[in-house]
Design a protein that fits this description.
With 218 residues, the protein is α+β, with helices and mostly antiparallel strands. The chain is 22% helix and 24% strand. It contains 4 helices and 9 strands. It has a 6-stranded antiparallel β-sheet with strand order 1-2-3-4-9-7, covered by helices on one side. Strand 2 and strand 3 form a beta hairpin. It starts with a helix and ends in an 8-residue tail after the last strand.
Length: 218
Amino acid sequence: MKRYAFLIFSAISLFWSCDEKMKRVIEPGEKIETTEKQTVEEPPKKEVVTLEKIAEIADQGNLESIYPIKNIESETRLINEGMDKAKVIWINRNEKDEIRIDFRPKDSTKVFRITVKGRENPFESITGVRNGMSIDQVNSINRKPVDFYGFNWDFGGAAIFNGGFLEDKNIMVYFTTDQKVGKRFVGDAPHSFEEAKGANLNLYVNKIVFTPSKNNKL
């Protein structure tokens, strides 16, 4: 009798033990929080066509491949202080990103020069020079300080590269200032970078003219 009681007790104990183990197995453990790493895609940078590339495309007569026809205007104008008549093409005329392309008077299929002006005009030279750039930044690109001509004449504010990196890059850079310019800086006399800095002119690029090397003769 005692033997049967012991067997029954052992069976009950084994059942409780198994039941408890099963509970421990099926009970959910602690939740592990997982964080998904999100990849933020940067918007693609808008590619700016350089003046040099625009000249190349214009020489090919293929400006419509990069600009809508409605943004392109053509006319004949006097250039070189009224000495010559030439075809002129305007892209985005009267807009912040306006481009002027003058063609050679004796060959209207070849670019004579390309002009972009205005502090907010986004077009730039392949050299890295762009409108709105400070004279200090131009010095850095030129790898030596630039000088500049005085203001209020045809070549007012034109940079003098002094044999630096930009000397033979077929571009002319014109500075301007938002400050009041005294008589000292008016006229065709050249001035140094140090003079401009001493007078707190805060010069910046306001116009760039690119003249293709093979087409710089009329």
